[in-house]
UniProtKB/TrEMBL annotation, chain A:
GO cellular component term of the entry, any: nucleolar ribonuclease P complex
Domain of life where this protein originates: Eukaryota
Molecular functions per Gene Ontology: metal ion binding
Residue numbers spanned by region Disordered: 119-155
Record's protein name: Ribonuclease P protein subunit p21
Gene from which the chain derives: rpp21
From TrEMBL, chain B:
Top-level taxon of the source organism: Eukaryota
UniProt name for this protein: Ribonuclease P protein subunit p29
UniProt entry tagged with the keyword Aminoacyl-tRNA synthetase: no
Xref: InterPro entries: RNase_P/MRP_Rpp29-subunit (IPR016848), RNase_P/MRP_Rpp29_sf (IPR036980), Rof/RNase_P-like (IPR023534), Rpp29/RNP1 (IPR002730)
A molecular-function term among this protein's GO annotations: ribonuclease P RNA binding
GO cellular component terms, semicolon-separated: nucleolus; ribonuclease MRP complex; ribonuclease P complex
UniProt similarity note: Belongs to the eukaryotic/archaeal RNase P protein component 1 family.
Native source organism of the sequence: Betta splendens (Siamese fighting fish)
Location relative to the cell: Nucleus, Nucleolus
Function noted in UniProt: Component of ribonuclease P, a ribonucleoprotein complex that generates mature tRNA molecules by cleaving their 5'-ends.
Pfam families assigned: RNase_P-MRP_p29
Length: 155, 221
């Protein structure tokens, strides 16, 4: 429990940094450097404190140069197919060219989505603050992203 | 199609359905510009002629190197590449004070959230403890004391925090770089003023959240 309370501030900080990157980009879509700096800080904090971040957050960060990937602004999204059967959503960072391919499979369920129910079961027995900051993070990304084009990573 | 149809605003009924809001013209223009700049194909830098003139043509047989293994792993940039790309440098045309005001608003919200309301009754010690681990990007910061007198009184929104340096954007649309060593900074939130001793703060912004601060010595400035 004590661990959770301590981590809450760190999660809030991650959340803030993620939102700040979005905020900077909405103000000026060409100011990629600052957004990248915030995302880089976010990544390093998560690494230092060993915090697990939600896949929906991690999928919007470039692996190579840590910039925030927003389709149309800092990234391109394309549908690619391999031997006509499996299709991928390929997200490519426009500043460094690093690609990110996600398989389009409607039946696939993320690991996080599956034990999410379990975690809520745990919460009924013993309250944990761990999942709460992640939820708020999600909201923040949604609200600031709504102005730009939306993508569907895993549909 | 008529041009006016393309540029027409999205009707109110559709806004909630699509989840898309039409932006004011100025913002929309900035976005289209950025989109075109990123989206258009760049002309290849080196054409065949210059390539041939610079490199010697080797006629010997060489086995093609296997590079697949390296490509598979997504590695970050190394320091040399980062410096070449100017990864974190803010271009001069983006240094406008009013662009950073929303960031400051966001930061204000974050701090109030973090400190649980920040009422006048809240314990200053607890707030200080929380601020120690908090993020200061977007705060309005003032240099209160410094060994170099010309730094004193500089006010602005903190844009970037590095290990030894704060980057501040002032109201005159200028980026100022202020070293942390030997200066004291003040941060104001809702009437609560907190002082930061730069000497004790010489860590990277990300490292500060993991680091333990120890009581050591006094600071006279």
């Amino acid at each position: 429990m004590a661990q959770n309370v301590k981590d809450k501030e760190a999660y809030q900080r991650l959340n803030y940094l993620y939102q700040a990157a979005h905020c900077v980009l909405t103000q000026n879509p060409e100011n990629v450097e600052l957004a990248r700096f915030y995302c880089f800080t976010q990544k390093t904090i998560a690494r230092r404190l060993v915090l697990r971040q939600d896949p929906s957050v991690k999928r919007t960060l470039c692996k190579k140069c840590c910039s925030l990937l927003i389709p149309g602004v800092t990234a391109t999204t394309r549908q690619r197919s391999k031997n006509r059967k499996c299709r991928f959503t390929v997200m490519r960072c426009t500043s460094c060219g690093q690609g990110k391919g996600l398989l389009n499979n409607p039946d696939y369920c993320l690991w996080v989505d599956r034990p999410e129910a379990q975690l809520q079961h745990q919460m009924q027995s013993g309250p944990s603050t761990k999942s709460q900051p992640e939820d708020t993070k999600h909201d923040g990304s949604q609200s600031s992203k709504s102005g730009t084009a939306k993508s569907s990573p895993s549909t | 199609m008529d041009e006016s149809v393309v540029q027409a605003r999205i009707p109110q009924a559709l806004v909630s359905v699509l989840g898309v809001e039409s932006k004011p013209t100025l913002k929309a223009e900035a976005f289209t510009e950025a989109f075109l700049k990123n989206g258009l194909q760049r002309t290849p830098k080196c054409d065949l002629k210059s390539m041939l003139s610079h490199k010697a043509v080797v006629l010997d047989f060489t086995r093609p190197k296997k590079e697949k293994k390296n490509c598979k792993k997504a590695k970050g940039l190394n320091a040399h590449q980062k410096r070449a790309m100017k990864v974190f440098e803010i271009k001069p045309e983006h240094q406008r004070y009013e662009l950073f005001l929303p960031l400051h608003q966001l930061w204000r919200q974050y701090i109030v959230d973090l400190c649980g309301g920040l009422k006048p009754t809240s314990n200053p010690n607890v707030v200080q403890q929380k601020l120690l681990k908090a993020d200061f990007h977007g705060a309005v910061i003032t240099v209160v004391r410094s060994k170099c007198p010309s730094y004193v009184g500089t006010t602005g929104i903190l844009v970037q925090e590095f290990k030894h340096v704060f980057k501040i954007i002032t109201k005159q649309d200028k980026i100022k770089v202020i070293p942390k060593r030997n200066s004291v900074f003040a941060i104001e939130i809702n009437g609560f003023i907190s002082h930061i001793y730069g000497n004790k703060f010489e860590h990277r912004a990300s490292e500060r959240s993991a680091k333990k601060f120890k009581v050591r010595g006094t600071i006279d400035l």
